[in-house]
Design brief:
single chain, 2 domains, 3-stranded antiparallel β-sheet, 11 strands, about 15% strand
């Protein structure tokens, strides 16, 4: 080859190489678009389990009693046992906390399980969902992943195997995930239940509480406990008696929430701390009962909190508000119904005005979650009880089992549903809660 021809051949080879790179990049981009189109879908494929019922709450209470790690044991290893329904209830609540509208469900088989989840794509201008399905296989330790699909896109097994270490690494980066990975030794999958074998040392409770409520959260709760103590002292100095209306405690606590949020704090976390502090006071519990590590929080004063002149209404309202803020409206409503059904069995009777206080608290908690700053500003200015609690003096209460069944036919019967509809109409008319009907 002559020296004159060599540069031309080099330029031609370079053009061919650049074309090959361009076509490769174009093919990869096209493949990426195809994969994205297959992976992302317009709607959730798995809506999750049916709505939480009062029976589910009874199951959850039994589950917690059976699996309390503080119960005596012969060694450090404990076994948490959950039926498929119990596991799905926990998955449902966890997925809702991770992303509004998300859902997950587990289908068990001997030695394996299929996990399906629907997650909304964050910040998408259109409806977009990731519908994920994966098969879990039991091992002597943690389950392995197989047959992973995202939407209509099958993910090869070798890709799933390489993803697992990265997922575990990201999980380990969170306090909750690190604690779970450190404690869990094995997961057994049977056709009817999940068994999680974990190690519970002498410091297990302290580690768990420290994970669920890190130092920053403990400091936040302490600030609200101090604000509540100041409000109760002001109430006593003004000649208040042995009870304080909830409407008098909301402004000082939510003024603090508004100030902290304006300073850059998480408004939702501030609302959670304010409501939890009020709920503990209303139920006569100490902050240290919930978080032993909190030492700076003042002891609660022996002052009951009332709503519509009754301390039981305040308890129903605030507990439902906290549960709704954490787990959504259906869970809070189900807990309220479960409590009344238990009262029906235990002799104190079924009370529709308690149900009204529960449902009012549920709407309040959902508003605290969906529009936290608006609620803070509204309550900081003061709100009368009539803004968030309807008149329920005419609603039946203390119904015995025989009268309740004869008149209302039991929970979910048409007469019972008509009573709930009447309660919801009263809630719809409230200035604060009427525009915040629970989104199911």
């Amino acid at each position: 080859m002559s020296a004159a021809a060599r540069p031309g051949r080099l330029r031609a080879a370079l053009r061919l190489s650049l074309k090959a790179v361009a076509w490769t990049a174009l093919a990869l981009a096209f493949a990426g678009l195809v994969a994205l189109a297959l992976a992302v879908q317009a709607s959730p494929r798995w809506p999750g389990p049916a709505a939480v019922s009062a029976l589910d709450i009874a199951r959850a209470r039994s589950f917690l009693q059976r699996n309390d790690p503080r119960r005596p044991a012969t060694g450090p290893l404990r076994t948490l046992v959950a039926t498929e329904r119990e596991a799905n209830l926990m998955l449902s609540q966890l997925s809702r906390r991770l992303a509004p509208g998300a859902s997950a469900q587990l289908m068990l088989a001997g030695g394996s399980a299929i996990l399906q989840a629907s997650m909304p794509v964050p910040h998408s201008p259109v409806a977009a969902w990731l519908n994920i399905s994966v098969t879990l296989h039991e091992t002597p330790g943690l389950p392995t992943l197989d047959d992973l699909r995202v939407g209509r896109l099958p993910v090869p097994a070798w890709v799933a195997e390489r993803l697992l270490p990265h997922l575990l690494e990201r999980l380990h980066a969170t306090p909750e995930g690190a604690l779970a990975l450190d404690m869990v030794r094995r997961v057994r999958l049977t056709p009817t239940r999940v068994e999680v074998i974990y190690e519970w040392g002498d410091d297990g409770l302290q580690r768990l509480l420290g994970t669920l409520l890190p130092p920053a959260e403990q400091a936040r709760l302490t600030a609200y406990a101090q604000a509540l103590a100041g409000a109760l002292q002001a109430h006593a100095a003004a000649g208040g008696g042995g009870a304080v209306p909830l409407a008098r405690l909301l402004p000082p606590l939510f003024t603090l929430a508004s100030q902290r949020s304006a300073g850059g704090a998480d408004a939702l976390a501030e609302n959670r701390a304010a409501l939890l502090t009020l709920a503990l006071q209303a139920t006569g519990r100490r902050m240290a009962d919930l978080v032993p590590a909190i030492q700076a929080a003042p002891l609660p004063q022996p002052v009951s909190v009332t709503l519509a002149g009754r301390d039981d209404f305040a308890q129903h309202f605030l507990i439902s508000a906290v549960v709704a803020l954490e787990g959504g409206g259906p869970l809070a409503d189900a807990i309220g119904v479960y409590k009344e059904v238990a009262d029906l069995r235990d002799g104190s009777g079924f009370s529709f005005n308690d149900i009204a206080a529960d449902r009012a608290g549920t709407r309040f908690g959902l508003l605290a979650r969906r529009d936290p700053r608006t609620l803070q500003d509204r309550l900081a200015r003061g709100a009368p009880e009539s803004d968030f609690m309807p008149d329920v003096a005419d609603l039946p209460e203390f119904l015995g089992r025989k009268d309740f069944l004869a008149t209302y036919g039991g929970v979910d019967a048409p007469p019972y549903r008509r009573m709930l509809a009447d309660i919801d109409r009263r809630l719809d008319a409230l200035p604060l809660l009427g525009a915040s009907a629970p989104q199911r």
